[in-house]
Design a protein that fits this description.
By secondary structure, the protein is an alpha/beta fold. The chain folds into three domains: 159 residues, 3-Layer(aba) Sandwich (Rossmann fold), CATH 3.40.50.720; 163 residues, Dihydrodipicolinate Reductase, domain 2 (2-Layer Sandwich), CATH 3.30.360.10; 82 residues, Alpha-Beta Plaits, CATH 3.30.70.260. Helix content is 36%, strand content 26%.
Length: 428
């Protein structure tokens, strides 16, 4: 039985630093709980000279990846550099060299997770990725084990802290998307290039991972329909409040009669729903099982220490059973082929607004087009906007997305309509 477990970390960025800090500062606590001494053996990064908020001993630092991947003393490799290249190659080398891998890298797991899981199984080691979704929130392990006796029917929630921070600020303090994004960047909550977060890529990667585990299905990133929040305006938030909602970017997975509905998009969430009160960079994920009912997982969705905590939790899990890897009971490699529902089949209520001429018959013409496409109006408002015209605001009853898309295209072609703004789905 191994009494000592040695860890190598690839990447000295935010997550790598947070992981190293916990391994060093909580070393005694970790050893007490696992019954093993867990040692940070080496940390590799291209830049080991820049001073970090937490600085580890210089003797543990290296710029040579072989000091981890070809080091026979290292049992567990933490890949914390992100992206797919060279992260995927590093993970593959580690697994082939009989080293278990822990990664918070949602992109590499979303795009290559199945093949990496199979490679881990073939080599009798583990591949864990608790920190890939939800930062410090434990969600991967509960899906694999805690809710394992259930058929999961729905999984949905807020899985991106950057967009939740921006939408919270826009709602609570006013202002438009652009100025709020700039503030998020200044505070370090958004990257210099925020595309992955604000356009929905990050949330989509996470939805792939959640869906694979929740539904046991073969899900590819290309199967996910996603939108970001860059089109959300201050007026959208104003109307959301007026109607009794708050706008959130949700990742949604549903199993319906053996088919999967997978989507990421801004949503009007009722103020009575707990998700409406998830503020700032926090995340929250709902899981609905056939026997457990509804459960919610809530907490910090990003940051060095919360995410590092999830990485170290995986390290501990592997260390507990280092002599008998957990991979075969914790990871599926036999995935079901399930039909992914086309976007046009989504059913929801929809909010949209229209800039139009302030003249007789415009509302009747729009209502006629909606009725033609079986779109029933739940609420409607007329607002003065400019001397040129007015603004009409609608919320529909439940309808197929194909119908609302056809209706909006026809409304856009009316001579009396100046602009039809992008719709937002209503309800969870």
């Amino acid at each position: 039985m191994k009494s000592t477990v040695k860890v190598g970390i690839i990447g000295y960025g935010t997550i790598g630093m947070g992981t190293a800090k916990i391994l060093v500062e909580n070393k005694d606590l970790i050893s007490k709980r696992t019954g093993k001494e867990i040692i940070l053996e080496k940390l590799v990064d291209l830049d080991i000279t820049t001073e970090r908020e937490f600085q580890i001993d210089a003797s543990l630092l290296s710029t040579d990846i072989n000091d981890i991947l070809e080091n026979d003393d290292i049992d567990i490799v933490v890949e914390a550099i992100g992206g797919t290249n060279p992260a995927k190659a590093f993970i593959e080398r580690a697994l082939k060299n009989k080293k278990s891998v822990v990664t918070p890298n949602k992109e590499v797991i979303a795009k290559h997770g199945r093949e990496l899981m199979i490679l881990a199984e073939e080599n009798g080691v583990d591949l864990f990725f608790e920190a890939a979704v939800g930062g410090g929130i434990p969600i991967i392990r509960p899906l694999k084990m805690g809710i394992g006796a259930n058929n999961v029917k729905e999984i949905y929630g807020i899985v991106n802290g950057t967009t939740n921070f921006i939408l919270t600020k826009m709602t609570d303090e006013g202002g438009d998307f652009g100025e709020t994004l700039k503030e998020a960047q200044e505070l370090g909550y958004a990257e210099a290039d925020p595309t992955a977060d604000i356009e929905g890529y990050d949330s989509s990667y996470k939805l792939v991972i959640l869906s694979i585990l929740a539904f046991g299905a073969k899900v590819d990133f290309e199967n996910i329909y996603f939108e970001g929040i860059s089109s959300i305006s201050g007026r959208d938030n104003m109307y959301a409040k007026e109607f009794g909602y708050e706008i959130k970017l949700l990742a949604v997975g549903k199993e319906i009669d053996g088919n999967l509905e997978l989507r990421v998009h801004p949503t009007f969430v009722p103020l009575t729903h707990p998700l409406a009160n998830v503020k700032g960079v926090n995340n929250a994920i709902y899981v609905k099982g056939d026997y457990v009912g509804e459960t919610m997982f809530y907490g910090p969705g990003a940051g060095a220490e919360p995410t590092g905590s999830a990485v170290v939790a995986d390290i501990l899990d592997i260390a507990y059973s280092i002599d008998a890897p957990l991979n075969r009971r914790n990871l599926r490699t036999d995935f079901d082929i399930m039909n992914i529902v086309d976007r046009g089949e989504f059913v929801s209520e929809y909010f949209f607004r229209v800039d139009c001429a302030d003249e007789c018959g415009v509302l009747a013409a729009i209502s006629g087009i909606l009725g033609k496409h079986n779109v029933s109006i739940k609420s409607a408002l007329q607002k003065d906007q400019t001397e040129k015209g007015s603004e009409l605001v609608f919320i529909t009853h439940d309808v197929k997305e194909s119908s609302i898309l056809k209706a909006m295209k026809e409304i856009e072609n009316l001579d009396s309509v100046f602009k039809v703004y992008k719709f937002i789905r209503v309800g969870v």
